[in-house]
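Bumping with the actual sequence this time:
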Amino acid sequence: MTTLLRIDASARKTRSLTRALGDRFIACWLAVEPAANVVFRDVGTAPPPIVTEDWIAAVFCDADKRTAEQSALLRTSDALIDELARADIIVMATPMYNYGMPAALKAWVDQVVRIGKTFTFDLARGDRPLEPIMDGKTLVMLTSSGEFGFGAGGPNAGSNHLTPHIETVSKYLGVETVRHIGIEYQEFGDDRFAASKAAAEAAVPDLVAALASRKRLRRPETSLD
């Protein structure tokens, strides 16, 4: 049975393009594998706490020496890491805010990328002392942006601080495979936006089918195609 961790980062509950893509992805996957386990984590409306000096001190304190207060500070981090550890596929639905990731999503990243939990640090490795602990996961990024051309060679490629950032940290989430579907031109609201939205929606069932075939599941028979 596949476990999917769906992370929603949009501050919008309605009119969110990424939430709609996330809904579509989950619906398509459940059409393939009805018994799949889906874990929902909505950081957009319930952001994790940001990292503080006390939180950092608790992280770098040996577990058997932590105070009750320090253990309490790490409770959210422990829960989020447990969700991540159990996931086979991470479905990350996030808009681009000011050319980067929403603050709520960055707070989630900072809570789960944690020494001794998702990576180890050893100077004996030389200039590459960090090594991920988890592996074998697939990350599906479902994004939206107000402008366009954020891909390689595009007019706004140099302003894309969303997907490259997520891809960089994804190895510490145990990710080995990354797939991306994005909607552009949102702020223009013209035919280009409509075409981009339609293309993204059409790409979701195909992506589900491709990922499912790797897991030897049947192709979805769904009206969403």
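The tokens above came from a reply further down the thread. Residues 191-214 form the longest helix (24 residues).
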